[in-house]
Amino acid sequence: MYIGRFAPSPTGPLHFGSLLAAVASFLDARAHKGEWFLRIENIDPPREVESRIHKIPQTLEQFGLCWDGEISYQSDNHERYQETLAKLSTLGLTYACDCSRKALLLRSGANRYDNFCRSKALCDAPNCATRFLANIPYVPWTDRIQGTINASNTEPDDFILQRKDGLWSYQLAVVCDDYAQKVTHVVRGYDLLNETDKHIQLYTALGWSIPSYAHIPIATSATGQKLSKQNFATPLDTQNANLQLCEALAFLGHTVPVMLRKSSVQHILQWAIEHWNIVHVPALPSRIWPNS
Ligand SMILES: [Zn+2]
């Protein structure tokens, strides 16, 4: 059984970097005769653009990337997150934290949380975030592309589950949704590799089975800057979907035969499903994409 997914956030138009994650997760699912779901990760209203929520499915369709079942929206899943938070709290694995970003910076000078409030036993107050008590050591795990990932030289830190303003963290939401949708295989960008240890900790704490992970290289400009919505990466050009699809496939180690490059996206995808092999995807954190 194989259930995969693509889970973009509607913070800007889809760009070449998003296409890579969509294509890789789609092909890996289809090559395994699996299902592929589309989930819109809209848990962060201040950063989201309403019109993008409708634009994402349209763009994917223009690239021939058709998903199974209904589109799911994280904004519909608050109850699910609340229940999971309650379960973690019952297990004694949460605590309230009232540290400001500034105080944290002054103390530890890094983005890493220093578990400062662990022993303070603060009562949940409106101005507190809820953190996960990460008392499970990191264990090495195997990524299908990047090989053995061993974070043993890093101490787990107590990451946020629910922010001070009530918004859910990416960590909590993504684990709850992948579990609820019975996702067996996660294929996504290398920029999320370091988050995976946290996800594995949550799965372990909740007694849920851990999906298999594959992290594809991310596209960067010649100067090493990641293509992202925050960096105003060029939106996908749906007029030339077939050519962009071929570029994405080449980036992922699958070169489409010249005679096929000008055919329809459906034809190209059909070829790609037949030829997809994840071992051909380069085991690199990033690759320069010449056209960025
Ligand atoms: Zn704190």
From TrEMBL:
- GO MF annotations, alphabetized: ATP binding; glutamate-tRNA ligase activity; zinc ion binding
Q: Where is the signal peptide?
A: none
Q: Which domain of life is it from?
A: Bacteria
Q: Which residues form the Glutamyl/glutaminyl-tRNA synthetase class Ib catalytic domain?
A: 5-235
The alphabetized list of GO BP terms reads: glutamyl-tRNA aminoacylation; tRNA modification
Keyword Signal annotated: no
E.C. numbers: 6.1.1.-
Q: A Gene Ontology CC term for this entry? A: cytosol
Which Pfam family is one of those matched by this entry? tRNA-synt_1c
Question: Any keyword Transcription regulation?
Answer: no
Q: Which UniProt keywords apply?
A: Aminoacyl-tRNA synthetase, ATP-binding, Ligase, Metal-binding, Nucleotide-binding, Protein biosynthesis, Zinc
Top-rank EC class of the record's enzyme:
ligase
Q: Which family would the database say this protein is a member of? A: Belongs to the class-I aminoacyl-tRNA synthetase family.
What is the protein name given in its UniProt record?
Answer: tRNA glutamyl-Q(34) synthetase GluQRS
Q: Which organism is it from?
A: Neptunomonas concharum
